[in-house]
Design goal:
There is one protein chain. By secondary structure, the chain is mainly α. It is 68% helix and 1% strand. The chain contains 21 helices and 2 strands. The protein has helices at 2-18, 24-27, 30-57, 59-63, 65-88, 98-106, 109-130, 141-160, 166-187, 189-192, 197-229, 234-240, 246-254, 256-276, 280-288, 316-336, 341-349, 357-367, 386-402, 409-425, 436-453; strands at residues 463-465, 471-473. It has a two-stranded antiparallel sheet with strand order 1-2. Strand 1 (463-465) and strand 2 form a beta hairpin. Helix 6 runs parallel beside helix 8 (141-160), helix 13 crosses helix 14 (256-276) and helix 14 packs antiparallel against helix 15. It starts with a helix and ends in a 9-residue tail after the last strand.
Amino acid sequence: VSYTVLIGFLLVMLLVAHGSNWMHYLDETADTTANLITMCCCTLFLYAIIFIYSLFEDPEFVEHPSNSVLVFCTLTITLMVNYVLGKYVNVYLRPVGLFAMLCVFFFKRRQAVFFNVVFGVIMFTIDIYLREFQAFNPENGPLFSLIVCLVCGTISAFIASKVRTRIGLLLTGVATAVPTIVVVLLLKLPKYIKLGWIQIVSSVGFSALACIIASVLALALLPLLEIAFKRLTVFRLRELTSTSAPLLVRLREEAPGTFNHCLVVAHLAENCAIAIGENAEVARAAASYHDVGKLKQPDCFTENQSDYNVHDELMPELSADIIRSHAKDGYNLLKSAHLPDIICDVAREHHGTLPIKYFYAKATKISGVDANIKDYSYLGPTPQSKIAAIVMIADAAEAASRALQNRTPENVERVVRGIIEERMDLDQFTQCDITMKELTIIKQTIVDALTGVHHHRVEYPSIRFNREKLAVKEDGSGKEEK
């Protein structure tokens, strides 16, 4: 339904933009009517190619209808912007790199490049059958348009895929302008021989300006598309992981121990995601918020306690219920804050259905018989994505490594290997399609990172310098020795 609506919207808008009295197409000549019908059919089939390509090359893409709606909506908007600017302002001012820039932030770079090819062919079809752009030479004008779309869009996709800041996106337009100018000069070289310098500067200037306009429009449209389709871009993820993000500010102020734990886990998760080819920005954001549910009762968690432990006065059943509730509480808190689904899901899944060993052992010791393991286990679900599995392992590894007295690489490796093996034995990774090779890479990545975080430091001498810059010895309590 959305596909049909968007196609209809595109065709109607093209006709409306073409002129106030567009009904003359149907009455003027058979040739004009045939051109219009051909253009509509070609556009329809080209839209369908995107869906067919995704259906066979990336079935997961088609499984989520919002993906198709987002592509078709973005394509329609971009075509209209290019058509209107080309018809009513200047044909060289068309921001042909806009569609590729938008797609590369929402989809894979390979998909963005393919979608841009389809976009270029659609623009080529419109140029041929509507015959609007008189700035082009009638013989090779539409072909010129096609080449500029393909070159500018492809270069934009490759450059923008490395961008991590909004100012970087603006600079993408500047960088794309250079090869675009070269293409324009080469393609129009025969015609420039007969033109004056004003026409040459005009075409080159508008072509360069079009690239910058594309980056500006991308900056304006990205937040709207992020909100409308609940999508994550690198810019949104950077904003979420900023220490000034509201929930992270609360975590830092109300649960400082948990906040510091989340920072280390985020560092580990990011490294692991890079190592196995997952989205590092998403992994870092998900890990940053994975324990946000502890905000409900921060004093009930060890990292936020000082000398007093509230669980000393509670029955193990109640303590276990408090501890395991932080996964669900985090999910609800993140949902109410309208954070992306992947971040909410990781908060709920990062403990899977693992047992809470400490309180299980405490209950068994009190009762004298083995307690019911289900009463002392997290409620799940188990990790549904590789990123959730990464956060599960990194979370446990960071906590366990803190308890080690001797953090040599061998000891850290033994602990991390035990964590992974235990979770495999308890079927925690059966729903996330993670491989043994990836788990091995994750293990080694975490060992290397934790060894760096908890590296050995030399013991500093017990002296300090006074105002006269003279060395003064101190005893163990920090007092000066006479």
